[in-house]
Design goal:
- The structure is a single chain.
- With 220 residues, the chain is mostly beta strands.
- The chain contains 1 helix and 16 strands.
- It folds into 2 domains: 178 residues, Methylamine Dehydrogenase, Chain H (7 Propeller); 32 residues, no CATH class.
- The longest helix is centred in the last third of the chain and has 9 residues.
- The protein is elongated, with a radius of gyration of 20 Å.
Length: 220
């Protein structure tokens, strides 16, 4: 009889509800687990009902809880699910990204959910219509382009006026949360910042690309 090989489980993300009573965790089995943290010494698993059952979804990389603790969002390989934490409504499903979704975050007022992805984009979603009712609704407000590599983290400024995103391209971008305009870009200078590699010989295209990533320039 063939023995089925066990697959290792990895937790990618965790998030608390604002009151600290529930911890949400998610990982490689497309399931969000909710832990009762009021039992501080022995947290109890209270729910495993929030399971992503979408074709091509393999992992959940990001989890966030809205400011009043009523909704939970998670991002996977291609789609975002938004659940109410109380009740059995079907989740709101948001589709736009074409690659892994590494970060989701709610605005301070809970009306906007913003996501960042390996497809190099940042997407703000208007979910205000679903705040006090079911999770029906969800409108893509914009697709923010500007990063050249994976967006690993998105967050809102404390006053909610800006969305910040950081990327493997070495930059942090500030976006106007209403217009989507890029307001500012922060960049840490690489070890080869400003080095002119125009006409340099003896290196491969891959090596040239790596040098540019570290700050080198090639003048046309």
């Amino acid at each position: 009889m063939a023995v089925q090989q066990a697959t290792a489980y990895y937790t990618h993300e965790i998030a608390f509800t604002p009151n600290g009573h529930i911890l949400a965790s998610a990982g490689t089995d497309c399931t969000v687990r909710l832990w009762d943290m009021t039992q501080s010494q022995y947290p109890e698993l209270v729910e495993i009902r929030k399971t992503v059952q979408e074709e091509n979804e393999q992992d959940i990389f990001s989890v966030a809880v809205n400011p009043d603790g009523t909704k939970l969002a998670c991002g996977g390989n291609y789609v975002i699910h938004v659940w109410t934490l109380q009740g059995d409504e079907s989740p709101l499903i948001l589709r736009q990204h074409t690659n892994w979704i590494f970060s989701v975050t709610f605005s301070p007022d809970g009306a906007t959910l913003t996501s960042g992805s390996a497809d190099c984009t940042v997407c703000p979603w208007d979910i205000s219509a679903s705040l006090n009712t079911s999770v029906a609704g969800g409108t893509l407000r914009a697709i923010l382009h500007g990063h050249s590599e994976t967006v690993y983290k998105v967050t809102f400024s404390p006053d909610g006026t800006a969305v910040l995103s950081c990327s493997f391209d070495g930059t942090i971008k500030f976006w106007d949360s209403q217009t989507g305009e890029c307001l500012n870009t922060l960049r840490v200078a690489g070890p080869y910042a400003g080095m002119n590699i125009t006409g340099m010989t003896g290196i491969t295209e891959a090596q040239k690309t790596a040098l540019k990533t570290l700050g080198a320039i090639e003048k046309v």
